[in-house]
Amino acid sequence: MKNRRILLVDDEKRILEIFSLMLTDLGYSVKTSSRPDDAIQLVSAERFDIVFLDQFLGPITGLELMHQMSAIDPELYFVIITANGSQELAVEALKKGASDFISKPFFVTDLLKSIEYIGKKKDLAVQKKKILLTLETKVNERTDELKKTHLDVLSSLAQAIEKRDLGTYGHCKRVSGYCELIAAAIGLDSRERHYLGIAATLHDIGKIGISDSVLGKKGPLDDSEKAIIKSHSQKGVEILKPLKHFGPVLPAILHHHEGYDGSGYPHGLSGQEIPLHARIISVADTYDAILSTRPYRPAARHEKALSELMENAGRQFDGEIVRAFVHTHTTQL
Ligand SMILES: [Fe+2]
After folding, report:
1. Is the dihedral of CA 93, 95, 100, 106 positive or negative?
2. Of all helices (H) and strands (E), which one includes residue 7?
3. In this prediction, what percent of the chain has a pLDDT beyond 90?
4. What DSSP element (H or E) covers 226?
5. Is the pLDDT of residue 309 over 90?
6. Same domain, 9 and 90
7. What is the pLDDT confidence band of residue 98, given thresholds at 50, 70 and 90?
8. Which end of the chain has the lower number of beta carbons within 10 A, N or C?
9. Domain total in the chain
10. Domain range holding 89?
């Protein structure tokens, strides 16, 4: 308690001298000021715990000075010294943020009571802050665990799909890796990269809802089968929609087959209308699809896959993303 730093502000210098001496004798660190502007300077330059403010300071009231000092140091505690019997002012002071008030004339015991009261109040506030911080940390940890569990479950489902969709095993993981390369190349921040990673891993989750006869068909698909395959982007959204954590990734999943020139699906969006993450996944997804062995065509070579992407830059794909990907890819592989 004795290590509290105290500032006394009163326009009566005699009062300041008396109480400063008394509190200093009791072991407190005390500064005094008889002028509001000097008091402001003191609060700006040094750290205090408690400020005793006389309400009548001449050019400014104690409450006005309290307002200015709070803006400088929000941690300060204030005690307003009111004129004898001014209960209305005392109530107003408490409403405006003062912790306590003292009526004139007062004695050193009144100051000590206020110091003790504020000391307890401050200790409680510190404890409360610590408890809240601990709770917040636990809630965040638990939320992260839940998010990870959701993601693990959905990643397992995505992998199960890859095993059904012949020749695509590891596709989601690779697409996620290519997206990370593009994200780094175009300077996405960590939050964006986090959601892009999830969207890339789960972009084909909607294939869970496609029948084996269509998904595993060897040979070309007819129009109705193509339409069924195309429905996977919408189905992916339906699967993930109930999981609130994945709200930010839904646009990328819904639009990862849109074409930059408007030729894609499901909405025929074009250019910048297509969410950025969807444009990135589109490039990464296609690159991996070209490289992968499919039932109806041999795996293409790396250079061939890149040149195919370049040929379609500005048409099927966002040209800037293709160039970023090709550049990063050629410098890293
Ligand atoms: Fe897809």
Report:
1. positive
2. strand 5-9
3. 60
4. helix 223-230
5. yes
6. yes
7. very high
8. C
9. 2
10. 5-133
* Per-residue pLDDT at 133 exceeds 60: yes
Q: Specify whether the CB–CB gap between 79 and 100 falls below 8 A.
A: yes
- The Å distance, Cα 126 to ligand 1 centre, comes to 52
Q: Following DSSP, what letter does each residue of 86-135 receive, concatenated?
A: -HHHHHHHHHTT-SEEEESS--HHHHHHHHHHHHHHHHHHHHHHHHHHHH
Cα 206 to averaged position of ligand 1 atoms, centre (Å):
8
From ligand 1's centre to the CA of 172, what distance in Å?
10
Residues 186 and 87 in one domain: no
CB 165 within 8 A of CB 289: no
- Does residue 76 share a domain with residue 223? no
205 and 59 in a common domain: no
Does pTM surpass 0.85? Answer: no
pLDDT-derived band at 267, boundaries 50, 70, 90:
very high
Q: Give the pLDDT band of residue 249 (cuts 50, 70, 90).
A: very high
